[in-house]
Amino acid sequence: MQYSSGFKARMIQRMSGPESISATKLAQEIGVTQSTLSRWLRDAGEGKKRVKRNGQLTRESPVRPDDLSPTEKLRLVMEACALSEDDLGEFLRRNGLHEAQLEEWRQKIEEASVAVLGKSKKKRRGKSPEAKRVEQLERELDRKDKALAEVTALLALKKKLETLLGDGDENTTPRSGR
Question: Among 68, 127, 152, 171, which residue's beta carbon has the most beta carbons within 10 A?
């Protein structure tokens, strides 16, 4: 049986819209076979291209993820990054992708941006020899400051002790601690 393109479009919308219904349920509801509805949905998918062969428009098989342009891959990666875990699965199915492909593309994008910017992850994570030397010198300075404070405190205590143990005569020098 021939169905109008408007009817097909309405059925495709019902199966792919925000309140989508499965092809099986829709088939029971309207009396069109599930396989026909599924084919309409598959043919209407975003991955289909129309090409002219022998003067007629025909449908080509879905675009493979490897055939996508770098711009399209970047767009898909950016869209996927903005999605929650629940929405990601639906996004991957809708676009005919696997999570591993997205991760691979994300890594390639990151590598390309590193190459363009001239910075590597290792340099950002690791410290330069100068930064390591500065840290080492700061630690040494802190250690010496603490030692100096301790010596200063001991000298102040020693002076107080000598003042307290002195014989009380202001003209005489305090006793030596020897």
Answer: 68
Give the Cα separation of 143 and 50 in Å (integer): 75
**Terminal Cα distance for the chain, rounded:** 119
DSSP letter for 97, please.
Answer: -
**In three state form, how does the secondary structure of 12-81 look?**
HHHHHCCCCCCHHHHHHHHCCCHHHHHHHHHHCCCCCCEEEECCEEEECCCCCHHHCCHHHHHHHHHHHH
Q: What's the mean pLDDT in 43-53? A: 55
Helix (H) or strand (E) holding 116: helix 99-117
CA–CA dist 65, 79 (Å, integer)? 15
pTM of the model: 0.35
Average pLDDT rounded to a whole number, residues 127-150: 93
